[in-house]
Records
---
Amino acid sequence: MNTVSETGYGRISVLIPFIAAIGALGSALNLATGAYDTSLLQAISFLIQDDGSNAAFSVRELRLPRVLCAFGVGAALALSGALIQVITRNPLGDPGLTGVTGGAALGVAVCMTAITVSPSVMIVFGIAGGLMAAFMTMLIAGNTRNRPIKLILAGVAVSVFCIAATSTLMILSKSSLQTLYFWMIGGFTNRGWPEFSLFWPWALVGALVSLAVCPILSYLKFDDASAASMGLNAGRWRVIAGLASVVLAAASVAVAGPIGFIGFVTPHLSSLLLGRQQSKMGLWLVVSALVGGGVVAWSDALVRLVFEGRVPAGILITIVGGCLFLLMARRLGQVAR
Amino acid sequence: MLGLVRWFLLILLLVLSCLLSLRFGSVGTDWQDVWRLFSGTGGAVTDIIREYRLPRTAAAIVIGVYLSLSGLIFQTVLRNPLADPTLFGVSGGASLAVVIAMGVAITFNPSETGLKAASSYLSLEWIPLIALFGGLSATGLIFLMSWSRGFSAIRLILMGVILASVLQALVMAMVVGLSEARTELAILWLAGSLYARDFSHIIPALPWGAAGLLLVFLMLPQLSALRLDALTARSVGVSVGMVSPVLLVIAACFAASAVSIAGPVGFVGLIVPHISRLIGSYQMKDQILTNMVVGATLVIVGDTVGRTVLPPLEIPVGIVTSLMGAPVFALLIYIGMRRNSYA
């Protein structure tokens, strides 16, 4: 239309604050709902100043970490999905569909049942499980450049196996089926400061690595030969970005359980939002992360408002994300051949 | 001669697995107790076998037969070795329909709780019908969504997998949305378990299976022609456009009936047809019969393993079959990659 949106900076300077504001509103809503009635403003003022009341305690010690977990997990999963989509050149990439979250869940379950419940060890096991699952998926799928859907089929096989194995472990360790279901669907019930303090260093490292390699990522979209002609060892950078995406996904699983479809949907959503600007890799990653965090924060707020917290947020995300996937898979027709 | 030996071995395996399934469980019994079941004498221990293990074994046989037949028909009609009823959303749709029905039944009769409420107000005869309805709708939806100038089975599977996880999430929302004390049955049933199944669960699903089996045998020539590509099938006088949908509906009905008994039991329909081809049955009739025997054996073994690993804990048979089936699925994909087939 006008020159400003032609260059795109006008659009971006509106878009990013807008997305951030939506995410912040979802988080604030999440902060304000709960057993103690607090208004939005009250909740925010409790953040700044602790007046020692029960309401302030519940906002600062119970709701704030939960909100941070939700936003962080959403952002991490979105980044992870975006990285997978770039390095496999596959628009259907998603940490859940490629088996990474399943493997991470299995790793966490192995650690929980057989070794220790110490969270810091758990996350390492999660990352190891995620890596193993990613490796298995790659091995089964082989070269997927021409048939991206094969990656997903291989991922489904790996993730079905990992989920069944996780269920077996949890049953054998005498958890009830209800606990199992709650854990397998993913959510933020009872997540507190210990979980968040465990999560953020890994997520931060993953995010920083992915932002650091993003100039190179934009070359990885082309084939390896032209990447090589620019003096890049495509394989090496792909491994580095892949590691970052596994770390991001595994850290999320260790905190929230395997939440589906965020990693697939948000990168596409941010491409839609960015329009022609989506070719700017760094921008795309940042917007994806913001959208992912916002979506998960809103989902958690909604399940708390509607179901009074009895339903894990993962349910809502899976339903909405899956429906979006079905719609988009139709549109990615030439891909999903 | 070779055929006879193979059949003898297959039947022997089936009988053996039945006996093992009757013999082992969380309560210690020995072979004599199993024998007393057949000779008609016996006390409390034999009663356990008769009341709890016998119906369970029967249910395993029925489920194995239904699921493997369903998988065989799907694989033959779609000419795709990866086809499996659980991957086409049959189980998800059936689960959702049954859980909604249970929810409605509980809402209108809020006085009772737990197992009693669901089974006394939602009569068991209705469950197969409801499951059938849900399974068929989900399958129809998937076929509708992945239609574009013909079915690519790989796209069917992608759509099926995604829809299945959406349906599963909806089921979860239903289960958790109903109050917690009353979700026992739904949760148990959703895990694909044979726990506490008795003949009242099995019998309502039998007529459907018998009718389906009759139809399959009536359509045997068409089914075997469909193994070839559509053009060849047409040239030997099979109207593919008419026969395929009918067969697919029958397959979905088989799967839904199985789901109505035990909940989703994954991958049996995927692996059993491959096993029966591996052990050398190529003729369609032969394949169907081998399938039934192998399917029954597989589910019985899965159930027995699941409940004897660490008694009294129990791994639902659906999880055991997924553990066995997923590697086979992976292997099939891997081999398919090599041959670059599965268009």
---
Amino acid sequence: MIKSKAMLIDLTLCVGCNACQEACKTANGLAEGEEKRLSATAYTALEEHDGVYVRRMCQHCVEPTCVSVCPVGAFVKTEEGPVLYDEEKCIGCRYCMQACPFQVPRYEWRSTFPRVRKCVFCDSRITQGLQPACAEACPAGATKFGDRDDLIQEALDRMKADPGKYVSRIYGRHEVGGTSILYITSVPFEQLGFKADLQTTALPDLTWNALSKIPGVVSVGGVLLYGIWWITNRRAEVQRYEQELKEGNRSPDQGAIS
Amino acid sequence: MKRLLSKLTFWKVVAGLVLISGACSAAVRYLGGLGAATNLTDEFPWGLWIGFDVLCGVGLAAGGFTLAGIVYIFNVKRFEPIIRPTILTAFLGYLLVILALMFDLGRPLQIWHAIIMWNPRSVMFEVAWCVMLYTTVLALEFSPVVMEKLKMTRTMKVIKKITIPLIIAGVLLSTLHQSSLGSLYLIIPEKLYGLWYSPYLPVFFFVSAISVGCAMVIFESLLSSHAFNRGLELDLLSEIGKVAVVGLAVYLTMKVVDLADRHALSLLWLPRMETYLYWLEMVVGVIAPLLLLSRRRVRESRNGLFLSAVMVIVGFVLNRMNVSITGLEAWAGASYFPSWMEISVTVSIVAAGFVLFAYGAKYLPLFKQHPKTVSIAPSEAEWLQDLKTVSQPS
């Protein structure tokens, strides 16, 4: 059993040097140039909120919404943790973008054959035993790569070691059922542009509740509709028969109606 | 030239201009990508084409399954004279929804992927299959009209034999499809504003589709009776109005109970944009037509029926736009208003619907009454009994 990988981002350590974005762009062959927001050419970006740098990227959810909503299964969650996108399958419905609770997926709006773009957690690097490019490049130790369970423990240890420094919350530990990217900070998350009110159970359960009722609706509904038709149709037949009897077009001994 | 000019009426010119602007926008969209033609952004990836063309298009086609169920399953044959134009409307509606999807999908030529690449956990997968299957069913349901025109008696007999299974499949697929469009939004509980987000979204979408289906039958029958100078089935339409009353009443009750259940009633009085839009949608589309249509005098007058039907339709459109656009803006932190190109494509698609329907009415036996079907004339009492069965929410 492969242990699921994760990254711990400690916002108190980030100095905003942008080395993570540069390394990311090189590793993923994206167009160069500093970008302040996520885009089709920036899988990660540093957003500044009240002097704090918030590194945004795909959260690589434990039970990803994008994987569940894609009609053609273009997204997969691998055992190691990355959520990957297969552009060959994509039909471009953008339900992944609509449904992502972190507003991460970006689109190539100007392309005539557009792709969804987002962080791939350096999948090819971590299957080779390397760290993601951003974690390797971080000079301040603000991004740490490791096993998810270990990193949660480490975050708790850092909080214990310096009481009062951190907000007592690991963002990503429970949000939408947990994510592979974990954040700790000294400033409340809602002040840093995080969606702080997300539910703690996985979102795909919400749609599954409805989808799982389809077989019932079809079978019960089908039988019910057929039954109603059978009754109303029979009623009409009997009516027609009685009408004919009354008009004398048919004698009773001609037998029952077919 | 003179003869050509004399054939041009005002509405033909309007339709022509609309379709030309739509074609220009289509060129921009396909040559420059979605970004060149639309105001869509990463924060706001679904706009008018999904909110109106797809969500409303499918809803407004709901007359097809509602009436087919009433006529064939509940055997209320009195409505048979209006079944053909209604099925045509539904069929055209679905074709135009598919056309709209060809604009909105980023990779429209890969739309067929949904047939072989499955993800049964996705609501969008269910939507895709419902669109495919129900469009096929509608084509088959409508095919006898074309066959009658072409005098293909033998094939017609085959279709007639499978009418009932076909209608049942159509009603089931519609039930699934109408509700699944609501299910699409179940996965964004924080994003969709509390007045609209509910675990019962699929049920709301289904029930509102039934009342708007009735409203569409009324709207379109009154319009076409005017446009094509044909006799009017006002008594039939009044009865359809009654079904709409039941639908609207059930919908209103469920909406109120749901808000109370979620402890969200206080949202009704918050001074916010969403509150006003919600009230507008509910008053125009549900409460007012419910009050109007429950009055016999309104139901039996041509203008009263028409006005009520238009209100139900407008309210329905407002609801779908609120769920798909305005109800999401606050959370997404983005505002969206469609570009003129998005609007022109949408208007063109609606215009295409009108044009196609007009051609259908002109060249196909849409409004013919079958002499066979009038032979059973249920007495008034039985007829009322039938209607009661129909109106009962299942």
